């Protein structure tokens, strides 16, 4: 189970730490971690390099989902809201729902630049 503990200490980087991810079971050996927040800031998804993925409600400080994917996780982000998040794993990118169920596996990697979707949509309309 993952939970957040508030602190005001600095950890060698000169920046104050607002939240430190800690765990009942020691998860520090599963990092380093990558984080993403929803636009509202209510939800956070964290993924450790060694496969630990956790979805947390920051208002209640309770985990929604805590799972081990048993594969290297390079990055994790939310899609349009907290219901879906893709995790870039060892070979492919997998999309999970809030319950931790794997919904889709992306076997081809596409590079999408910011604003590219809008310009492609405009070209299709013309």
UniProtKB/TrEMBL annotation:
One GO-annotated biological process of the protein: maturation of SSU-rRNA from tricistronic rRNA transcript (SSU-rRNA, 5.8S rRNA, LSU-rRNA)
Domain of life according to the entry: Eukaryota
Name of the protein in question: Transducin/WD40 repeat-like superfamily protein
Transmembrane segments: none
One CC-aspect GO term: small-subunit processome
Species assigned in the record: Artemisia annua (Sweet wormwood)
Classification of source organism: Eukaryota, Viridiplantae, Streptophyta, Embryophyta, Tracheophyta
């Amino acid at each position: 189970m993952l939970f957040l503990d508030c602190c005001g200490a600095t950890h060698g980087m000169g920046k104050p730490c607002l939240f430190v991810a800690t765990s009942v079971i020691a998860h520090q050996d599963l990092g380093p971690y990558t984080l993403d927040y929803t636009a509202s800031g209510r939800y956070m998804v964290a993924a450790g390099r060694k496969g630990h993925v956790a979805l947390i409600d920051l208002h209640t400080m309770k985990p929604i989902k805590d799972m081990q994917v048993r594969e290297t996780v390079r990055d994790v982000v939310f899609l349009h809201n907290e219901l879906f998040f893709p995790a870039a794993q060892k070979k492919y990118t997998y999309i999970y729902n809030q319950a931790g169920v794997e919904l889709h596996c992306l076997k081809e990697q596409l590079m999408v630049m910011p604003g590219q979707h809008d310009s492609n949509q405009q070209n299709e309309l013309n």
